[in-house]
Amino acid sequence: MPKPTRRDILRAVSLALTFRLGPAAAFEAATLRLPPDDAVADQIGSLVASDETVRNARGWLRTSADGRRWFDAAAADAGMTLAAGPLSWVADAKRGVFYRVAHEYMRRAELLTSLAVLTGDATLLDAIIKETLEVTDRPNWNPAHFLDVAETAMGVCLVLFSAGPQLSAADRGRMIAALRDKALAPGLLGHQTGAFWALAENNWGMICNGALLTAAVTVSKLSPGDEDALVRDTYSAALDGLRAAFEGYAPDGGWIEGPQYWNMTTRLATFVLAALDRLTGQDLGLSTSPGFSQTSRFCLHLRGPSGRFFNFSDGPDHIEPPSGLSWLARRFGDPVAAWLPLQWTDVFGAELLWGGAPSRSPGEAKEPLTATFRGPEIASLRAAWDDPNALWIAIKGGDNKAPHNHLDLGTFVLDCDGTRFALDLGADDYALPGYFDRRRRFGYLRTNTDGHSVLTAEKGTQSLDGTARLEAETTTCRLSATSAEGGACATIDLSRATVGLHSHHRRARLVSNDAIALADRWSCEAAPLPIAWKMLVPGTIVLDRDGRRAWLKRNPQTLFVHLLTPDDAALVVQPLPILPGQAQNKGVLSLGVHLPASAAGRLVVVFSRLADLPPPLVAAALAD
Known about the structure:
With 624 residues, the chain is of the alpha+beta class. The strands form three sheets. It has a nine-stranded antiparallel β-sheet with strand order 4-8-9-10-11-18-15-14-13. The protein has a five-stranded antiparallel β-sheet with strand order 1-2-3-5-6. Strands 7-12-17-16 form a four-stranded antiparallel β-sheet, with no helix packed on it. It has 17 helices and 18 strands.
């Protein structure tokens, strides 16, 4: 039975609410409609979209099948949200932070204000205004974990702008005072005292500074009498921090914290740019930051044909619907960026306002089948865009000192026939003792080298300061089902990562539509060392008697792993250890190779649909 989507769940909940709570509780899910006359709805404005952009979006939502699907999903989501009632601001029991609640509050503010702008339905605004006034009355927004402040402040800004004449002067003053006292003041103090996020090129830098800048501009433009040194100084400091954060997209749009944190970061980045444009008519040149115009490619290429992402750096392999891709599509005239969010069944609210830009699939747009991203040092190689069964591998180098990093340089994930066959375990519980303390973080399986698909020497790990770079750009050549001519190739230099080795290079090559080769070549620093190679596999593994071939089985799909060299080695299967207090990794096995001590060596495996490899393919896989 297929796993239900979020949209399926929303529909079921909305229907249940109609019966359990009465029709009024599920009103928006059942009756929310786009008005036939734009003038009816234009009475409510959006912080992140011009009136013209909203009118264009309405037209698309009315006439496009994708638009209607998005609108129906958002309406169902709104029905569930309203029926659930106000949020309970209770700190996470393990970590003592309010991020999940603050994130949900911003999601609600985005969803309900976006739908109110599109439909002119004041009921939606009334609900989020009431909840926002409760938020403003909280003693503080938890500045000790400033992400909580940032998401809360951004939600208040969205509501403050859209509420317009529905707010009394007193309530408007309460919201502005809360932004000043609970966001701008602690934010400026953070900059003045050197908070770690103040100039950070990571998700914290973008989210915290982006929210502060938006709050400062919102207060300045909507309540000019409240513009003072606090507002001006916070604006200046936040802009410096935001410029630093945008540098994280250089040079080509990649993000060192992985797709999950790319999504969080880019959502806030596009919100800030849209709000600046709406409030001031310019985005201060931030949208021209190196790599930012290309960043949708990071999301595109790190999503495999299975729909799962390369989830390095504390991320899941499924992420929330990306929010910001439609804005990027409009800003940069990128039809593939407009196509990408349509692959999700549900949507964040602002995408409704930005949607409708001309879209084309990657295949139609002739998007390259390979991509590299410097910084995270990632290569993505795939056999086709328009085939959900296509072979795909993504492999990474990077820097073990990067935020949210694991000791995982050289690890990879692989899809075939719509199935993830080589996986990344992702994050463990953030509340584990020392999880974000570099002296203790790598004592956990999921963050250590042992929990990744890598090669190590003498049961070693990777250097805490290890780095690994792509040696050259990938290349794409035409492939066929049986010919091994051409193919895409990417090589990562792991010599500064793998402890005990003088040199170590890992190369991934797409040798045909049916086969990917992964080759490791190494030499030791001094005395010969034993070598261990492994990959993490979900499902069942069956070995040939001689250990030279393995069947990876995930019903109903099968992938073969062929060990080509060295000749005297064999594949072995081991369970992952069960460690108290850590994630248990049920259903995941380790497929490995253990080699005796040697001064140098080479190991080549081929992942293929084919049980038996033709000689030309073997020759291509073994070629340097």
